[in-house]
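dumping this here so i dont lose it
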């Protein structure tokens, strides 16, 4: 469309607006419509008050999902607007059916404005994302304004006039606008539904943590793909054109997305074979921590020192990983110590096992075990073994607790621990 044609369309639109306003404002139907609007407001307020007194929203929505309860609260709060729309709509249909040559332009304006207000207020309570909320509000008010001015069809035709044809697909500003808005809303709805199903899956105690995460990811991918397909189909795009996009994605994978796909596939493998799951205690290199979230690209490991390592899923598949709680939560912890030759080794062994058995988090079964490792130059070296079943609570804390228990028990039972000063004296005498 050239510039002169565009100017002609704009001039025609303004001429239509001026003519419509002049005809409607000078018509004897104007005061009649204003009276109808006023009566509809009073009727809507009366019915709204009656409904609120008779209807118990809390008991009626008991057990509903949070979003449905929020929508019900919003609708109940907008009962006046909803009744107003129904009353005006019924009256307008009746007038246009039974009266010859009626004028219902003001009624149409009232219905459109009230509908836009209702849609925006209800969705504002459900959509907490500011960007999505603003897009919905602007779209609703724009459609209402164009409909009020009788310009909606002309605006749609103007946006659909210019087009670019790519591979048999006719791309127009109207198509781009509709697709963009619908995709944003569809992705928001898909994310909301995915989060709801994710919470439901995690509440299912019959499923293991790894199966819960795997099922949640598969559901999210399926819902997102379904949302895209629905939007493309609704705007009239032939899905066969996605073959071109698939080829482009294949080329991208060959050039620079190998790591991303590898990490994604590795994450699926980890969840499927249950080698690593949320809540496990693992060691990767020098890092020991608790597995937190397992994302599409990485797995978070909390080392309980204020840092959280994000380890690529591919590394967890290809590198050596120690899983402290793979088959069971039973973990053996070692503590090495020394005692002087002046103390009977059998007494030291019995005292050490008794001290470990009384420490917090140490299991009674299997019972702690102590072994003699070596006879050193100045002291006998021992190794104490004990077991815990809650490695997620940390290993350093339980090891520290056992060592403090050894210190107190050795002091009370007379088991001598070699001191650095005493060691120097013994070495000096030997020399």
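and the seq i came up w/
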């Amino acid at each position: 469309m050239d510039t002169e044609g565009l100017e002609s369309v704009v001039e025609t639109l303004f001429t239509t607006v001026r003519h419509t306003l002049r005809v409607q404002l000078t018509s004897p139907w104007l005061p009649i419509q204003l009276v109808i609007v006023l009566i509809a407001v009073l009727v809507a307020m009366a019915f709204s008050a009656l409904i609120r007194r008779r209807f118990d929203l809390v008991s009626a929505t008991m057990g509903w999902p949070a979003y449905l309860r929020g929508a019900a609260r919003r609708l109940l709060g907008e009962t006046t607007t909803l009744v107003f729309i129904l009353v005006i709509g019924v009256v307008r249909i009746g007038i246009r059916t039974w009266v010859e040559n009626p004028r219902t332009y003001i009624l149409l304006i009232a219905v459109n404005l009230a509908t836009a207000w209702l849609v925006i207020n209800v969705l504002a309570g459900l959509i907490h994302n500011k960007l999505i909320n603003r897009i919905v509000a602007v779209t609703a008010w724009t459609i209402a304004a164009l409909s009020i001015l009788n310009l909606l069809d002309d605006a749609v035709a103007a946006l659909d006039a210019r087009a670019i044809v790519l591979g048999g697909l006719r791309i127009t500003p109207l198509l781009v606008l509709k697709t963009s808005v619908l995709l944003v809303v569809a992705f928001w709805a898909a994310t909301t539904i995915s989060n709801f199903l994710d919470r439901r899956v995690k509440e299912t105690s019959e499923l293991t943590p790894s199966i819960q995460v795997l099922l949640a990811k598969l559901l999210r991918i399926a819902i997102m793909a379904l949302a895209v397909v629905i939007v493309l189909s609704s705007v009239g795009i032939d899905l066969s054109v996605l073959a071109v996009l698939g080829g482009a994605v294949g080329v991208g994978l060959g050039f620079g997305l190998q790591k991303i796909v590898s990490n994604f596939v590795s994450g699926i493998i980890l969840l499927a074979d249950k080698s690593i799951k949320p809540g496990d205690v693992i060691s990767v290199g020098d890092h020991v921590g608790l597995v937190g979230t397992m994302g599409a690209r990485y797995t978070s490991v909390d080392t309980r020192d204020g840092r959280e390592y994000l380890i690529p899923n591919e590394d967890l598949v290809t590198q050596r990983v120690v899983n402290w709680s793979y088959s069971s939560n039973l973990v053996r912890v070692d503590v090495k110590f020394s005692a002087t030759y002046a103390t009977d080794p059998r007494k030291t062994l019995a005292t050490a096992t008794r001290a470990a058995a009384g420490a917090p988090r140490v299991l009674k079964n299997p019972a702690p075990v102590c072994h003699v490792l070596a006879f050193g130059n100045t002291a006998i070296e021992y190794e104490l073994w004990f077991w815990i079943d809650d490695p997620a609570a940390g290993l350093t804390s339980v090891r520290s607790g056992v060592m403090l228990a050894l210190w107190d028990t050795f002091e009370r039972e007379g088991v001598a621990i070699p001191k650095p000063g005493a060691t120097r004296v013994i070495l000096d005498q030997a020399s």
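Strands lie at 164-166, 169-171, 281-284, 287-294, 298-302, 308-312, 322-323, 331-339, 369-375, 380-388.
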